[in-house]
Amino acid sequence: MKILVSACLLGQDCKYNGGNNYSKKVAEYIKGHDIVSVCPEVAGGLPVPRIPCEIVGGKVTNKNGERKDLEFRSGAEICLKKALYEKVDLAILQSRSPSCGVKQIYDGSFTGKLISGKGVFAELLSKHGIKIVDVEDL
Length: 138
Hints:
Layout: E1 2-6, H1 24-29, E2 34-38, H2 40-43, E3 53-56, E4 59-62, H3 69-86, E5 90-93, E6 104-106, E7 114-116, H4 120-127, E8 131-134
Parallel strand pairs: 1-2, 1-5, 5-8
Antiparallel strand pairs: 3-4, 6-7
């Protein structure tokens, strides 16, 4: 099986705060599988670290009110192309991210409130028939 994984879950320091979300559960789950590691935000040209972003009125915006939708969506497209080229069977994505959130994302108020919804990359993968799993559901 070929599995796409959010790079932060594999220990890559690509989160907005310069850190990662290394997951021992993911490391165990992917043993023996071919892995495709991606970070749509970095692929879209965003720096590490960067100002936190949320989806506000359907557009990705940072906490300073600057639109980052183009970077998020172009990075999602780049990573989708990689997923399709690599013929991935499954994607394990980071919870609540404006890119990779599978079930929930932050509501756009930058107050930590969650709502049902998908990040831009998770949505794109779903539309193209790639099964997505929230890391918390492993």
